[in-house]
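Quick one: structure for this chain?
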Amino acid sequence: MSSDKSKEDLIAYLDGELPDESASAVEKSLVEDASVRRDVEQLTRTFDLLDLLPTSKASDGFADKTLTAIRTQTQVPGSETAEEDVPVGKRLDLPRTAIQWGLRATAFLGLMFVAAVGFNSTFRQGSEPIDELLSELPLIQRLDEYEEIGDVKFLNQLSESGLFDERDEPPQD
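Got it. Here's what it folds into:
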């Protein structure tokens, strides 16, 4: 279920916007296809990460600029009435492709931000057990030797025997 239409259906399903017939078809594919379940899980995680992003407030003139851009794009060439509706100071002079590339670049940067946040949170969750093991590395390296000793009583007997006391002469056999 990797087509664009299928992705749109999954998003609409998660948003609760699908008609009953389409929703039941998506639910059937969720039961039967592991890749669809994986896609839904990825979309759900993406939506959750997007909810973590700070919300921004549109500028005061945003609505006017947007409506002006729409009027400029929909005007018929040679029509004088469409140009009269748009105030001279608010005409959008950028070519249409530049706006599209700007939107694409913004979407790409947003996607990269979400991917970086997801990677960072996943990496940090997985590194905690490794940090704990690294702090205990000297103990782990000599674990076999420690297991051969048995218990503390043996070490106490060895200490009391004086075998390892500091002396100038090596022990005699």
